[in-house]
């Protein structure tokens, strides 16, 4: 509150904003009352007001234009606030949230498109909208897709395999080979624990997991348990020791390989890198190569997520969810995380569905990615609080010997395996330059590749689609500056998967006959993939 109390806009800037606003508002009013100019039906330049109903109704057109002017002025005011960088960024974010929420398109009384539809359907659209609203109230979230159209294991997460190991923390999936021969070194994927693994296996034609199997890799995937009340005391150390470290041990035992290839995606990459640092401190180097997809290791600056993290906010989490909370540790509910991520892009992931579902009575179409996005997971409070404090807040993971995990002082520089580091250019969760900073932490051979699009679409980009492009440096040099690297990078059309596949194959060893059955005598198949854990709801 003290920080907010000291904020101000310079008088000169405020006077200029007022003058500009009055000038534009006056012009807008004059145009609206002029028959000739009003008949011109000006384009509003915003997809929320793209329907003919907005421009056909003079009052609605004026209201939309006035809203856009007010929104622009508020955003300009937020830009002019004097204060420290983080506080100013928070104000800009709060203003943007207010601006997006107050759009006239979000209200039935102000939305001529929804009103017209109600008249055309004799009120049926409103009745349907109320039914959809009540269904979402019961679900506890705004529906972004037809959630009845998908079932895990039936039409998403369908790559054939078996559960070959399970403990309290995860199930280990081994996928059925699709080639007669496989590489001698197996391949282990560690997905984020804040989401379910099947983002990597949505459909056969966009499945990174299936792609790896098709390339002749004996592929294993960690399927995290969705924590319930019995898991609320789990710590970061518990996760590291009993999930990635155990998974590596089991994959080595099943395959008989001394070293394996491993991949971590998002938080899964942070967890995997931490586990490998623990093992390095124990004198073990179990991976032949490490792939990190949109992963944070150096948390110096992380875009919009930094707005939510400071000493006060982390302390509040520790007091309510952490191991020393007065009522004991608790769970961070999955829906809270999902809602937070949705409001990072509110027009696309919140208000778009409020208008479509409730005002127009249009059920959202079936979309596998959004079904996965809504299939949320809980997190144990102690684990989450440790992660917040020691990475986002204090950025200690990158500092050799600064952190003790599983009883070991860790140094990520002691991981000797070559590392393939991928970032997505429009990623708002892990900004690409943040992903690039990992190149300055690891000591082994490194390769950085930049893909187009965002956090998910950039990663899930199969070659057969022929979409987007990726950038690779002209040389192997990885300067400290991400922008300096980009200046020397070359754009290549299509998916980055082919580049990564060639790199991975170079570390996978010779080919040998594919196994005829999953697991081995000590780790027999428990149930078919995708297993029980991924089907648990938050």
Automatic annotation (TrEMBL):
Q: Where in the cell is it found?
A: Cytoplasm
What's the chief localization of this chain? cytoplasm
Q: Which GO terms describe its cellular component?
A: cytoplasm
Q: Which domain of life is it from?
A: Bacteria
* Poly-beta-hydroxybutyrate polymerase N-terminal domain sequence ranges: 46-212
User: Which GO BP annotation is one of this protein's?
Assistant: poly-hydroxybutyrate biosynthetic process
Which SUPFAM superfamilies would you find in this protein's record?
A: alpha/beta-Hydrolases
Give the Gene Ontology MF terms in alphabetical order: acyltransferase activity
Provide the alphabetized UniProt keywords. Answer: Acyltransferase, Cytoplasm, Transferase
* Keyword flag Phosphoprotein: no
Q: Which InterPro entries match?
A: AB_hydrolase_fold (IPR029058), PHA/PHB_synthase (IPR051321), PHA_synth_I (IPR010963), PhaC_N (IPR010941)
PANTHER family in UniProt: POLY(3-HYDROXYALKANOATE) POLYMERASE SUBUNIT PHAC (PTHR36837), POLY-3-HYDROXYBUTYRATE SYNTHASE (PTHR36837:SF5)
Please state what the protein is called: Class I poly(R)-hydroxyalkanoic acid synthase
Source species of the chain? Paucibacter sediminis
């Amino acid at each position: 509150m003290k920080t907010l109390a000291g904020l101000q806009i310079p008088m000169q800037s405020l006077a200029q904003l007022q003058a500009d606003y009055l000038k534009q508002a006056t012009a807008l009013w004059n145009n609206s009352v002029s028959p000739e100019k009003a008949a011109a039906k000006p384009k509003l330049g915003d997809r929320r007001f793209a329907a003919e109903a907005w421009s056909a109704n003079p009052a609605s057109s004026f209201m939309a234009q006035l809203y856009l002017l007010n929104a622009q002025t508020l955003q300009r005011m937020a830009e002019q606030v004097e204060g420290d960088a983080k506080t100013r960024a928070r104000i800009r974010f709060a203003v943007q949230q207010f601006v997006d929420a107050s759009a006239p398109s979000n209200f039935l009384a102000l939305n001529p498109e929804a009103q017209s539809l109600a008249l055309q359907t004799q009120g049926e659209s409103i009745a349907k909208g109320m039914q959809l609203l009540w269904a979402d109230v019961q679900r506890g979230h705004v529906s972004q897709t037809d959630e009845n159209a998908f079932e895990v294991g039936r039409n998403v997460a369908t790559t054939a395999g078996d559960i070959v190991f399970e403990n309290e923390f995860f199930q280990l999936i081994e996928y059925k080979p699709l080639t007669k021969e496989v590489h001698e070194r197996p391949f282990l994927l560690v997905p984020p624990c804040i989401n379910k693994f099947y983002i990597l296996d949505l459909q056969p034609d966009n499945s990174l997991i299936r792609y790896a199997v098709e390339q002749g890799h004996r592929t294993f995937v960690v399927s995290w348990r969705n924590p319930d009340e019995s898991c609320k005391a789990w710590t970061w150390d518990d996760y590291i020791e009993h999930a990635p470290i155990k998974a590596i041990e089991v994959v080595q035992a099943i395959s008989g390989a001394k070293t394996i290839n491993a991949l971590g995606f998002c938080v899964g990459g942070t967890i995997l890198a931490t586990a490998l640092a623990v093992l390095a401190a124990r004198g073990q180097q179990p991976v032949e190569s490490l792939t990190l997809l949109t992963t944070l290791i150096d948390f110096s600056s992380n875009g919009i997520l930094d707005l939510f993290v400071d000493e006060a906010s982390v302390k509040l989490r520790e007091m309510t969810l952490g191991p020393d909370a007065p009522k004991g540790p608790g769970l961070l509910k999955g829906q809270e995380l999902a809602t937070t991520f949705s409001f990072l892009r509110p027009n696309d992931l919140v208000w778009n569905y409020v208008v479509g579902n409730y005002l127009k009575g249009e059920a959202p179409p079936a979309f596998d990615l959004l079904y996965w996005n809504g299939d949320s997971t809980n997190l144990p409070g102690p684990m989450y609080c440790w992660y917040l404090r020691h990475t986002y807040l204090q950025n200690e993971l990158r500092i050799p010997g600064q952190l003790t995990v599983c009883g070991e002082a860790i140094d990520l520089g002691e991981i000797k395996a070559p590392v393939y580091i991928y970032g997505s250019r429009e990623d708002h969760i892990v900004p690409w330059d943040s992903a690039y900073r990992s190149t300055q932490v690891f000591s082994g051979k490194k390769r950085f590749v930049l893909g187009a699009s965002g956090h998910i679409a950039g990663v899930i980009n199969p070659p057969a689609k022929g979409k987007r492009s990726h950038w690779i440096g002209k040389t192997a040099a990885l300067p400290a500056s991400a922008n300096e690297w980009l200046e020397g990078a070359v754009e290549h059309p299509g998916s980055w998967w082919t580049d990564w596949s060639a790199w991975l194959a170079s570390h996978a060893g010779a080919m040998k006959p594919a196994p005829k059955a999953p697991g081995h005598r000590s780790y027999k198949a428990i149930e078919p993939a995708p297993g029980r854990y991924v089907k648990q709801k938050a």
